[in-house]
Amino acid sequence: MDEPVEDDGLARAGDLAQLQGSGHKSHLITLVPGGVLQTHRGVIRHDEIIGKPWGSRLQSHQGNPFYLFKPGLADLISQTKRTTQIMYPKEIGYILVKLGIGPGTRVLECGTGSGGLTTALAYMVGDTGRVYSYERNPGPQEVAKANLNKLGLAHRVNFRLGNAEEGFAERNLDALFLDLPNPYDYLGQVRASLKGGAHLGLLLPTSNQVVLTLEALKSANFAFIEVLEILIRYWKSDWKNFRPVDRMIAHTGYLVFARPVDSPLEDEPVLDSEPEADREAEGE
Ligand SMILES: C[S@@+](CC[C@H](N)C(=O)[O-])C[C@H]1O[C@@H](n2cnc3c(N)ncnc32)[C@H](O)[C@@H]1O
To answer: The pTM is what?
Structure first.
């Protein structure tokens, strides 16, 4: 196997670059010779960026500072232009791990929305995998396409206009994620497209939706069902005043995961602790 080519650490024409101003405002651009970035804190010419080491401090024509960063996945997601609610990185991160998304994965999502999750899936599957992204509403899907085009990720995605009710054209998928209000109505369509035993993930804002979903998952022979929510608490990064921030987001949504099987165990245990805690208790 070839070793990856060592990077010279410099920003090049064609690279995606993040210009981070003071505070949290940042700009994502593809570096083009002759290009110009206009911001309300002044103008920066791409030619002044190309050839600079990543991490450099630059300044706009008004003298305002900007840092030059190679964007990570969270930076790409945070730049998503949105017409719908998009997922938070805290949920996206766990979904990617739980569904086993990596190079070569074939994954379907329904409810493209503005493409927050689509960006993460396309980033992870690489050029050998594929994302199939269904949405019933053309408006948000056009926004999602534009978002992924800007990031150079759209070629990894088949955007399909369609309602989950009509089912999905793909078969034997490795993973499938539904981000829509009534997934319990579409479990037959999900089963038809997923490989046996593969991963299904769902995001639901209310516990009422979760209850309906649990009942439907059971009757549609899904097993190893997990329900969780992810809470994140930021701390002030000030060593002299090190304490949690004053306000936090209390609730975003519930995540549900399950796997389609041919027949579930009659006495499948209901999870009553974290799966990791169970593993420790068993001494593994
Ligand atoms: C909350 S948004 C999805 C956000 C997206 N996951 C993101 O991170 O940007 C939900 C989307 O599901 C779509 N939707 C709802 N029901 C649907 C259905 N039955 N079939 C296809 N799309 C549906 C809506 O039009 C909406 O755009």
So the answer is: 0.94
